[in-house]
Known about the structure:
Chain A is of the alpha/beta class and 322 residues long. Chain A has helices at residues 19-29, 45-52, 73-83, 96-109, 219-229, 237-241, 272-275, 307-320; strands at residues 5-9, 34-41, 59-64, 89-93, 113-117, 119-122, 125-130, 135-141, 146-150, 171-173, 185-192, 205-209, 232-235, 262-266, 283-288, 301-304.
Amino acid sequence: MKVNRVLVLAEHDNQTLKVSTAxxxxxxxxxxxxxxxxxxxxxxxxxxxxxxxLDGVNExxxxxxxxxxxxxxxxxxxxxxxxxxxxxYILAPATTYGxxxxxxxxxxxxxxxISEITGILSPDTFVRPIYAGNALLTxxxxxxxxxxxxxxxxxxxxxxxxxxxxxxAPIVNLASKKPYDLGLSQFLREEPHVSKRPELTSARIxxxxxxxxxxxxxxxxxxxxxxxxGAALGATRxxxxxxxxxxxxxxxQTGKVVAPDLYIAVGISxxxxxxxxxxxxxxxxxxxxxxxAPIFQVxxxxxxxxxxxILPELSKELVIRK
Amino acid sequence: xxxxIPVKRVIDFNVKVRVKSDGTGVETDQVKMSMNPFDxxxxxxxxxxxxxxxxxxxxxxxxxxxxxxxxCRVALARGADRAILIETNVETNEMPPLSIAKILKYxxxxxxxxxxxxxxQAIDDDCNQTGQMLAALLGWAQGTNASGLNVNASTGSVxxxxxxxxxxxxxxxxxxxVVSVDLRLNEPRYISLPNIMKAKSKPxxxxxxxxxxxxxxxxxxxxxxxxxxxxxxxxxxxxxxELVDKLRNEAKxx
Lengths: 322, 254
């Protein structure tokens, strides 16, 4: 019997491997025991090493070229298309990185892409949310190569080799078959948002603010609590649109999807588009002055009241025992 | 410059979507349909480029059942100069984004736009694929999740600010290119009554899908659609002290 091979596209910034890759490898382990991770980057040896330590990975393929430095979709997709035929599955994290590249690969292979799966029912049947998570679609792929993006929160990250459960997987440097700098797009600059807090999508605790916070200045009240809890900070689309916080804080249908152990929603009414991004959290707390706000329908613990009175109290309570 | 704007007819974003009891899909009978909100932003951006005299012609294109004519008329009222509907027998949802991209490619080759601007995703299937697939099939550059767009006609390029997980990223794309937009790119204006009237006399070309002779494959099969597991709503606490106590001793998450 032919063994199914899976290619997983690693997400990274040339220095560190993103956790989303470890979540995607977990999904890959449900499909096959033959998993190759592809690292396309520039001066990215540390990333390749980290990928080789992921549990379940058999081989790491590296293409280390200047044209891959910024992960431009046109160039990375071209490389993946050249590698695709050896594989039955091509997976990437359903992050802005994976979502940008993978549809290009699928289209050129003339196969569909299955976006943001949350479950694998059989080798060709997958579950994914549609309509902002208001329905779950079970879908069967009829294509010879299955191109899939994986929702990180639905698959627990594989161990990163810290516990040394395995030998590092061999790292293979790919010989460049052709120039991959297609020259279609060019990276100009980035404005990364630097934060000392944990990354939103992998944080154990997330505290989020909505329009109820009324200003960016008031988000400082959330920051204070976030720092006491070691939590990441999130926001609704309304709060981002109003300019309270940068875009990368946005949680929801078209922003980030989070599923922390504890999600604290402050001044958030609970529009379905926001719920889509956080309703799989283990414990949800809602603080809102409107007792009828839809957020209370999904909250395990609801506190009705003025957030400007509640937040200082909450902050004080958290000092007592950290 | 010429802009092609693909627009999709979807269940209105304010509607609470209900799954059909037979598990074949979601209820669309008697349900309000609208233009995909992301596509409205795409169209608005094209109209602004036309107002700046960068764009000369805006063509809206939709693929779907006969009632998607309504979406085309809305596009015309929003400022498209003309519209094309590729009429299909099936709801667009039953066609994967790859098929949509193939049909769009056909019209791109025919109309030769400099820029295709479309929503980064449709709020029904949440796929986020069509723009990237179209760019790939054409061998064009792509700028997804755009929250800023600056056309430089003299250099034949467009600068796109992209919203990415880590913040913002700016790319320069060689024209022609495909740009998929995020909601923060602009705020679409309200449609005025005179524009609704004007839209009635703008050209809307309806082309049956069968006339195109594009071969589309079946790639996917829907097994079932089901409602998600609902969360039970929990309890109300009276103050911050009680909340912290519950989180520590009952939920044990602190």
